[in-house]
Design a protein that fits this description.
Elements lengths: L1 H8 L18 H17 L5 H6 L1 H7 L2 H4 L4 H18 L8 H14 L11 H14 L11 H15 L6 H17 L5 H8 L4 H6 L1 H13 L1 H17 L12 H11 L8 H7 L5 H16 L5 H4 L1 H9 L6 H17 L4 H11 L5 H17 L6 H10 L5 H20 L4 H7 L2 H8 L6 H15 L6 H14 L2 H28 L5 H15 L5 H17 L1 H11 L5 H15 L8 H13 L6 H16 L11 H18 L7 H11 L4 H14 L3 H4 L1 H17 L2 H14 L3 H8 L5 H11 L6 H14 L12 H19 L2 H4 L4 H8 L7 H16 L20 H24 L7 H4 L4 H10 L10 H18 L7 H12 L11 H21 L33 H8 L54 H12 L80
Helix pairs in contact: 2-6, 6-7, 6-8, 7-9, 8-10, 9-11, 10-13, 15-17, 16-19, 17-20, 20-21, 20-22, 22-23, 22-24, 23-24, 24-25, 24-27, 26-29, 28-35, 28-36, 29-30, 29-32, 30-31, 31-34, 32-33, 35-36, 35-37, 36-38, 37-38, 37-40, 38-41, 40-41, 41-42, 43-44, 43-45, 44-45, 44-56, 45-47, 45-48, 48-49, ...
InterPro entries: ARM-like, ARM-type_fold, Pds5
Keywords: Cell cycle, Cell division, Mitosis, Nucleus, Repeat
Subcellular location: Nucleus
């Protein structure tokens, strides 16, 4: 040992046994071999070996020489570094090196050797790991705390470790690195900004994505040293955020990213930083506020974040940004809401009020994102969203912007499918959102075609998915229909109706393109293209695309046949899917990924493809209904009472029988309906009858075995069934069997009015004078108030039905030109007065039939004037309905004239302004207009005229005001065509013209201009004009009328007009043959108590009919209109009795009268007047209208 000490003090280097001198004179291989032995020696030494420490002191100093520290061979450097690490371990806590510069060189050298850790597959990796383990365990770098350049050494060490860490390192490497670095932070006096940047830079997203292991290392280091490093982190953010000293660090521009990462690592690192963010939320810099909002959105919305509860002032300050003036900030807050709702349901209450305000934000994008946020959270879990939030989505389905409406509708549809159809949230969740289906279908009432198309798509994809198996699809439809509200049901029915109409229009286009080209062909194709275009989005662009489609159909036979199959009533759902796929594939082009034409075709195919209903589907639906009837269906499990399910199922079948009648054409379906027909339940049997009526057109020839069984059942129902079933049975026989007259003869003793009219419409000529005699009989019915026998034995309801049937029959005959010509002016006036019948249901049904005939342009224009008589109807709804009918018909004719310029020669029959002469004629011959210049009667005349003129004069198209004035002036140059020699009638005519002129002058500023053309007056109603202008019968009352009476229709009618009968006056005996006998009387206060019977079977009607047929070739006797006058002539200027007037009309009863479903044109005209009776208002004397109660 003494020898060893001497060696040490001598400055001589002592090498371990077996190790020779290590110098530059030996080869690299030999140097490596000798160093390995030295490493082994130092590795085996411990701190207690004082002698050996002294012995090898000079060797330790020698190994730290520049020769070794700067040696070019990496193996030599590694072995030397391992020796130096052991030397620090052995000589700890005092190192054998005292020079600060030497210590710096040694630690910088060791740091450089640690780069070898990067290659985990290197043969020397274990020595590198030993080096790391040794210095981490001994905490060798802590020696550098006393050095001036310690920050440089530590920074280089940190950078090296963050650079070399990779996914090849195991947990031990990671742990030793953390140990080494954490000791420097925790045991050092301070942490420099440079060293802090070296750690934090690994948290910046760009670096994080490049080296995930470095991020994990920094994260572990920060967690380990959170308490020690927190003051330095706080100081860094104070410098940047509060003082604005961005130069203190290169990471200044990433402060918000760093705050988020640090918060996710350990919230305690930011205890003093978060209050600074509240200050930044109120910054005047929009971009700065936006950055803070984005940051806090992530912090508040993080899954395990408790920031909102721990720092409520910051949370409330953040919520205030929902109302920020800067749009991007509000948008960011709204986007954050979905994450917050999903991760923190307890904060939903705080968010609700702010989202409510933002759902009405003026910015479309913000309203859109409110919907997205709520729907996203709802799709994750319905319990995360309260009803108030869902209601915001509901409101936005009516947003003014299509993008917002679409998002709201699609969101609700997805929620409905998930929780109602797929049942993911259970029955409670399904019940909570049961309103969605109704709301979505209600949107079909919107005018926008985009909304309607989206509802159809939602129905096919989310409410009743078309890709379901047939039985499951029909079950879904069945229970959906059973739970819809009334308006939603109507919307769904309308949707099927619109799709069916479009399908027919496309079929018509297909028929047209197969015809040879001509001028008429081009017009017809263009007309059909316009109709189809109105059923597609963006009609302006769609028009060109539909034209192109028509051209494609002409040229491509394959596409044409596919489309013909698609619109065929017999097309199955599977066939429809195949046709749509083939047509789309044929029209698509790989070279044109964005093809607007193809998109339009897809829209069209989507609307016309029968993806829900076919023969198989109807069969499955009927089976489902039968299960409910038999009590074997799972109605209660579906949340639908059995009776409600059956009722809805039958209604659904009735609707489908109207829109998809061919789908019912299968033996299985008809046999099932036969079974329903034989059931005791009246509702079921009625529904089956209606379905047979709608679908049985070809049953006689295609299903003779069904016919043989069905006919006896129908005959029995017609003869002995309940009234409604009897009616439907008659309809079925008429619709399904060719020899219907024979069957009717077996059922009824006499033919009814309906059959007579239908027969006449089939004959279409009056050669046998059958039309004339029929019209006389119908007139007699009206003159006798519906009681042809005049014995007073008929019930009021039956009389009402007969009056309605007679009036509607005249309307039906008037639609045929050959019969319109033989309808006399008296008969026309009598028919018109039905609209003022005392029975409310008669007025209502007659007005509907009148409107229908006018809308189809079948009824002549003079019948439009009939609506002028509704001006004094006591029921506000009836007046409003009449006005709507006038508006629609006038607009319809004007539109028709614009689109068909070639019909100018028929202008007198189409131009709405030509209704004025007919209205004047009706008012002149109004039975209530008795005294020519009576003030009250003139007021009534004025109201009736204004009822029509107000609509006609709403727009002064083509100087129509001057045209009307000219027409009235021309009328004043004529005489009444019905009674040209009757001075009083002509005086009435000129007085009514004066009233009309007074209205035109008072309501128009352009009436005095030149008329665009000379009006042509109807020759039947007025004589040829006199060349000498007739002086007007200007009455002094006109000015009074104009000053004291507002022309607009009154709401309260104190003196409604009515229809009555009475003895004829002497003064008007001479004109008795030319005018209907009408007067007025007080309507009796009666009610219907006797059981309802079919009026077609009444014996008195049969006798009256026989009597009329006997007299069909005889002119009416003077002073008679179906019955003799009852008394002598009254005083002059009173209503002449014996002529039919308008009886007192009263409002309908509070109970609504059950209305039948709309029937086809050839159906019985009395359908909507069943179960009616007369009921006059008590204590109302004088004139009035017919009233009804139930």
């Amino acid at each position: 040992m003494a020898h060893s000490k001497n060696r040490a003090t001598d400055g001589k280097i002592t090498y371990p046994p077996g190790v020779k001198e290590i110098s530059d004179k030996i080869s690299k291989e030999e140097m490596v071999r000798r160093l390995k032995m030295v490493v082994k020696t130092f590795m085996d030494m411990d701190q207690d070996s004082e002698e050996e420490k002294e012995l090898y002191l000079n060797l330790a100093l020698h190994l730290a020489s520049d020769f070794f520290l700067k040696h070019p061979d990496k193996d030599v450097r590694l072995l030397v570094a391992c020796c130096l690490a052991d030397i620090f371990r052995i000589y700890a806590p005092e190192a054998p090196y005292t020079s600060p510069d030497k210590l710096k060189d040694i630690f910088m050298f060791i740091t450089r050797q640690l780069k070898g850790l990067e290659d985990t597959k290197s043969a020397q990796f274990n020595r590198y790991f030993y080096l790391l383990e040794n210095i981490a365990w001994v905490k060798s770098y802590n020696i550098c705390f006393e050095l001036e350049d310690s920050n440089e050494i530590f920074t280089q060490l940190y950078r090296t470790l963050f650079q070399v860490i990779n996914n090849g390192h195991n947990q031990k490497v990671h742990m030793h690195m953390v140990d080494l670095m954490s000791s420097i932070i925790c045991e050092g006096d301070s942490v420099s900004q440079e060293l802090l940047d070296t750690v934090l830079v690994n948290l910046v997203p760009a670096h994080k994505n490049l080296n995930k292991q470095a991020y994990d290392l920094a994260k572990a280091l920060l967690k380990r040293t959170a308490q020690a490093i927190e003051p330095y982190i706080t100081n860094f953010f104070n410098q940047v955020l509060m003082l604005g000293k961005t130069s203190v660090s290169d990471l200044s521009e990433h402060v918000f990213d760093l705050i988020l990462e640090l918060y996710n690592i350990d919230s305690h690192l930011l205890l003093s930083v978060l209050p600074q963010l509240e200050f930044k939320l109120k910054s005047n810099d929009n971009d700065e506020r936006l950055q803070v909002v984005k940051l806090l959105a992530k912090m508040f919305g993080a899954k395990d974040s408790e920031l909102a509860t721990q720092n409520k002032p910051l949370w409330q300050c953040y919520l205030g940004r929902f109302n920020d003036i800067h749009v991007p900030i509000r948008l960011e807050c709204v986007k954050f809401a979905s994450h917050c709702l999903m991760n923190h349901p307890d904060l939903a209450k705080d968010l609700t009020e702010y989202l409510k305000v933002r759902s009405h934000d003026p910015e479309e994008a913000i309203r859109h994102d409110v919907i997205v946020s709520i729907v996203t959270a709802c799709k994750k879990d319905l319990s995360l969203v309260n009803d108030q939030l869902l209601n915001f989505v509901r409101e936005r389905t009516l947003d003014k912007r299509w993008r917002v409406r679409k998002e709201a509708m699609m969101g609700l549809a997805q929620i409905y499918k998930k929780y109602c159809l797929q049942g993911e949230g259970g029955k409670e969740a399904a019940k909570q959102i049961s309103w969605i289906k109704d709301k979505l279908l209600h949107i079909y009432y919107q005018n926008s075609i985009d909304d309607r198309l989206l509802v159809e798509r939602i129905f096919a994809q989310y409410m009743v998915p078309h890709n379901l198996e047939t039985t499951e699809r029909m079950k879904c439809l069945y229970y959906l229909y059973a739970t819809l509200d009334q308006n939603a049901v109507k919307a769904l029915n309308e949707m099927w109706k619109c799709q069916n109409m479009l399908r027919h229009n496309v079929k018509d286009l297909l028929d047209l393109v197969k015809q040879p080209k001509s001028e008429s062909y081009n017009k017809a194709v263009f007309s059909k293209v316009m109709v189809i275009t109105r059923n597609l989005p963006d009609p302006g662009k769609a028009q060109d695309f539909v034209k192109k489609l028509a051209q494609v159909l002409e040229e491509d036979e394959k596409i044409r046949k596919q489309l013909e199959t698609l619109v065929s009533p017999a097309c199955s759902c599977k066939q429809a899917e195949g046709c749509v796929r083939d047509i789309t594939k044929k029209l698509s082009s790989p070279k044109q990924p964005s093809n607007p034409f193809l998109e339009m075709v897809k829209f069209l195919l989507e609307r016309i493809a029968p993806v829900h209903i076919d023969t198989e589907s109807i069969s499955a639906l009927i089976k489902q209904v039968n299960k409910s009837i038999e009590g074997t269906a799972d109605d209660e499990d579906e949340g639908v009472p059995t009776e409600q399910a059956i009722r809805a199922g039958l209604e659904l079948l009735k609707v489908l029988s109207f829109t998809h009648p061919v789908s019912f054409h299968s033996a299985e379906t008809f046999e099932s309906l036969l079974g329903c027909l034989k059931m005791d339940d009246e509702k079921v049997a009625e529904a089956a009858l209606q379905i047979f009526k709608n679908t049985g057109g070809k049953l006689e020839e295609s299903f003779p075995h069904i016919k043989s069984v069905l006919l006896p059942v129908l005959q029995h129902k017609a003869k002995k069934g309940p009234p409604r079933q009897a009616k439907y049975a008659i309809h079925c026989i008429h619709a399904m069997f060719s020899n219907r007259d024979t069957h009717f003869a077996q059922i009824f003793e006499i033919q009814g009015i309906k059959l007579m009219v239908r027969w006449l419409l089939g004959v279409k000529n009056n050669q046998s004078k059958s039309g004339t005699s029929t019209l006389r009989m119908l007139t007699a019915i009206l003159n006798s108030d519906g009681d042809l026998t005049e014995q007073g034995k008929m019930g009021k309801p039956d009389m009402s039905r007969l009056r309605l049937a007679a009036g509607c029959a005249i309307l039906r005959l008037a639609q045929e030109p050959c019969y319109h010509e033989i309808i006399t002016l008296e008969q026309y006036q009598l028919c018109a007065l039905v609209i003022n019948d005392e029975c409310y249901q008669v007025r209502q049904a007659f007005a509907q039939k009148l409107h229908k005939g006018l809308c189809r342009l079948r009824l002549p224009l003079e019948y439009l004037a009939v609506f002028s008589l509704c001006a004094k109807d006591p029921v506000k709804e009836r007046r409003a309905h009449a006005r709507q009918c006038l508006v629609k018909n006038i607009n319809l004719r004007r539109e028709y004239l614009k689109q068909h310029a070639a019909v100018s020669e028929k202008l007198i029959s189409l131009l709405p302004e030509y209704v004025v002469p007919y209205a004047i004629h009706l008012l002149v011959h109004d039975p209530d207009y008795v005294k020519v210049q009576d003030l009250e009667q003139l007021k009534d005349i004025k109201e009736s005229l204004w009822f029509v003129l107000e609509i006609l004069m709403a727009k002064n198209e083509n100087n129509s005001h001057a045209f009307i004035r000219k027409m009235v002036e021309n009328i004043k140059q004529t005489k009444d065509g019905q009674a040209p020699d009757d001075a009083k009638i002509n005086e009435k005519l000129y007085t009514v013209c004066d009233v009309a002129m007074n209205i035109v002058i008072s309501k128009s500023t352009t009436y005095s201009l030149e008329s665009p053309k000379d009006p042509v007056l109807p020759a039947r109603y007025f004589t040829q004009p006199d060349k000498v202008v007739i002086q007007p019968f200007l009455t002094p009352f006109l000015t009074i009328v104009h000053e004291n009476e507002d022309i607009t229709t009154k709401t309260d009618m104190d003196k409604p007009r009515g229809r009555k009968r009475g003895p004829a006056s002497n003064q008007e005996d001479k004109s008795q043959d030319s005018k209907p006998k009408r007067g007025r009387k007080k309507a009796a206060n009666t009610s219907m108590e006797e059981p309802e019977e079919s009026w077609t079977e009444d014996s008195s009607l049969a006798e009256a009919t026989m009597e009329m047929e006997d007299e069909q070739n005889s002119p009416p006797k003077k002073g008679r209109r179906g019955r003799p006058p009852k008394s002598a002539a009254p005083k002059e200027d009173t209503a002449p009795k014996g002529r039919r007037g308008r009886k007192k009309a009263a409002p309908p009863p509070e109970e609504d009268v059950e209305e039948d479903q709309e029937e086809e044109e050839e159906e019985d005209e009395d359908a909507s007047s069943e179960n009616t009776e007369v009921k006059a208002k008590p204590g109302r004397p004088g004139r009035g209208r017919r009233a009804v109660s139930r």
